[in-house]
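User: structure tokens for this one?
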Amino acid sequence: MTKLEILTYPNKFLLQPTRPVENIDEIIQRLIADMADTMYEAPGVGLAAIQVGSDKQVLVYDDKPEENDHRYGVIINPRVVETDGQVISENEGCLSVPDFRSDVKRAARILVEGVDREGKPLRVEAQGFLAIVLQHEIDHLNGTLFIDRISALKRELYKRRINKMLREK
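Assistant:
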């Protein structure tokens, strides 16, 4: 088990878009396994490769981590191809934006396409909590943090608090 360091705001690396995975080799397989270990250890329900310092389009998720069987999902090169409805994700949080939660507008239902860890085409239809998790992680792969989806006032207050903490260190 290798626990990776989770990058946190205001690290600029988190704001860059990731690159598609061209070849699913041992390096990508190791990244996936390490990301899953890191997600469970954190604990979290999703993790995008950008959050652990990799610019690859890889995400892992487990919308039922309390079941202890650690059957996580993997999507490589994911993209949302369909959305429907709207929902407020209440009290959304992020491992890369510690100690902050906020309500975020999300699509109620999504269809995601990508490939699995063997390179086979994958389609995931999701609604409810899983739809929120996948949208959150795909946002990361596009260089978007959930605080980019909240009001400017709330975002500014969070940024000021973080900057003050950094100055005090």
